[in-house]
Amino acid sequence: xxxxxxxxxxxxxxxxxxxxxxxxxxxxxxxxxxxxxxxxxxxxxxxxxxxxxxxxxxxxxxxxxxxxxxxxxxxxxxxxxxxxxxxxxxxxxxxxxxxxxxxxxxxxxxxxxxxxxxxxxxxxxxxxxxxxxxxxxxxxxxxxxxxxxxxxxxxxxxxxxxxxxxxxxxxxxxxxxxxxxxxxxxxxxxxxxxxxxxxxxxxxxxxxxxxxxxxxxxxxxxxxxxxxxxxxxxxxxxxxxxxxxxxxxxxxxxxxxxxxxxxxxxxxxxxxxxxxxxxxxxxxxxxxxxxxxxxxxxxxxxxxxxxxxxxxxxxxxxxxxxxxxxxxxxxxxxxxxxxxxxxxxxxxxxxxxxxxxxxxxxxxxxxxxxxxxxxxxxxxxxxxxxxxxxxxxxxxxxxxxxxxxxxxxxxxxxxxxxxxxxxxxxxxxxxxxxxxxxxxxxxxxxxxxxxxxxxxxxxxxxxxxxxxxxxxxxxxxxxxxx
Length: 482
Fold this sequence. Notes:
Helix 6 (about 95-110) crosses helix 7. Strands 1-2 form a two-stranded antiparallel sheet. The chain has helices at about 5-20, 20-30, 35-55, 65-85, 85-90, 95-110, 125-140, 140-150, 155-165, 175-200, 205-215, 235-245, 250-260, 260-265, 270-295, 295-310, 325-340, 350-370, 385-415, 420-430, 450-465, 470, and strands at about 380, 385. The longest helix is centred in the C-terminal third of the chain and has 27 residues, at about 385-415. It is globular, with a radius of gyration of 22 Å. The model has no long low-confidence stretch (mean pLDDT about 90). By secondary structure, it is mainly α. About 65% of the residues lie in helices and about 0% in strands.
């Protein structure tokens, strides 16, 4: 494995990260706020360090191996968060570097878990950088580099696979595929921004930060009360629509807009199950709010529907303190945290496709109990899944639940109650952000001890990269030199 080659390209990524900080620097200068020096210094550190990595290590020839791709992707997310945290530390937003790293990892992984106690007191540039990290990480920082630079050659497919394991190859060249996905992502972002600004009537800066949080299904907002601060049905409706759009497989949009094949979208089993679960959860939560809290039908569906969409799409915006809701509603939201959105979307968690395959697998096992000689293939739509794919999906689900349980036990050991511990892990692994109990939508993660923050940082990274990319690094065989 060519460690120096990996470091060579990580240098390019770090330098590119520094260039992306020019946007918040310009924002700081525009608003005449004191954090401009923090961004100027951060840009110098990132570009200087990145170019140093780039110049002192060889570029190498040939394609990346799978192991090199895994190391590059994992290293990219760890280092992007490490260097991206510098402005938060220098500007005094997070006095502790661990807190700054937590906030940045939460941003790049589009988690939305925050350690900030008063968001609205922060400078505009800090808030913009906080949300821009989500937008960059939503579709994937490595896929962006693959789209922009042809330098990765034949190894690009391994890089995309390591960062987005369930991404569907839409074109003959993987670079063309990720370019198409980024164009869709950029187009949806532009439409939402314009709608929020013009139809929603909110300031352009707020529209931009909300758009970054929505399309990345990240959930950072420039307001302490999140989307609830605007108290606008129009804003909430726009956000609901684009949260849902962002949590659907972007490959289906490719066939919808590029190939003019709407049937591929509406006949897709995962899409239909996702919409069915989302609709059903919204109705049941609303009915529970009507019965247990006495809300009107309109308010129950307004708040219950918004939170169901926000949680299942793993965005994490809030319009109400669902921590105060009845147990049934909170339990439903916790289940939605674990399920998440669709494969090939910016949403996190287990994903609906795995839930669908799990149901079919269980049905096959039940059928084989009374008819052991039957050969029952597992089909998703018209496609018969190979046993290798089924095994991989089942393995991911088992590993996800195992990490969820073990991490929750660690969080109880550092002092959290059971509900707060479980939901904090579910919310960070699923890249949701707010949880229940002490980490509810009106609270934050600042109080969690350092060990607990480290565990949750790992959960964010592992959840965003769908576990195998991160846990592969822990396998002794991974480090055998070949």
